[in-house]
Amino acid sequence: MSALNSPSEYALSHVRKLHAYTPGFQPKGTGWVKLNTNENPYPPSPMVDEALKEAMGDALRLYPDPRSMALREAAANLHGLSPDQLIFGNGSDDLLNLLVRAFACEKAAGYLMPSYSLYPVLCGIQNSGVVELPFDRSMELPIDELIELDARILFITSPNAPTGVGFSNEELAKVIEGFDGIVVVDEAYADFAKETAVDLLSRFPNLVVTRTFSKSYGLAGLRLGYAMADPSVVDILDRVRDSYNVNRLTQAGGLAALRDQSYLKAVVGKVKRTRDFYRAEWEALGWFCYPSQSNFLFVEPRNASGETGPEVAQGLFEYFKQRKILVRYFPSSPLTASFLRISVGDEDQMLHVSETISKWLKNA
Fold it and tell me: Can you give the pTM of this predicted structure?
């Protein structure tokens, strides 16, 4: 190797041009109110803790079940599907990566903006083309434009991130029926929503629905997700996944979480009540807030003078951060630059946010 060359120069040219996905800021130390990554403010089911303790020990020297069959069977039972319609992965991001790997290399992938910013990163890794379709402020699903996209696979986040807006099955069905390719409905926040596209799987073999355990189940640290699809699609994904893509502890914890649906419903109910309360409170201040079907709120702050805009949003973002409250700011798009995304925390966290907003308005 020439001394003038960096080893990175031997990487594939498209990889050298990549910009990695940027997650929300991860604070160091204590005392932070962390509402920037849509984590569940409540602990997972106590059954998860018990399952993890049982899974520890001598069995960890053995490989996990490569197909995560117990999880596939439990999720199939939950959703009224057959196990051959399910595949599990290392978070739903793993499944999204497999979908791009299997369906987008030879032709472009399509997605809406704003949306989950991992999609273009995954496409960049596979060196596939991308087709971006912008939302307008109404956040209405542009059905006709989506159907006409020149792409092999289409990603729709419903409920949308970062706005929290959910799309009806009636709207989604029109897109899935008309689109000539695979349609992925990314349902990371489905348990907080009014409708789920799972009901459409029996009608459309080109539909894939993805889920995660990171939000409603409170298991972001275990990294578990799954996809539901026609058995032929699952078969393709099984061919391109890592042999042991879900470890033993994660399989045990995920299975326990799936079996405790009463706990899940109780936690989801608390989050939704808190979400709706603070949406009403902020709207009473004259702030615009999208109707959220997720575990976060996307709000356009208005200062004491009644002004909105990127400077106002960034000002409140920095004011929060100085007081150890983390929320998310997306300045790169005109549609998002005047907004903040605030994850729904527990009652104490949200009260602290509310009191901090009151102080910001008085100080301004």
Answer: 0.94
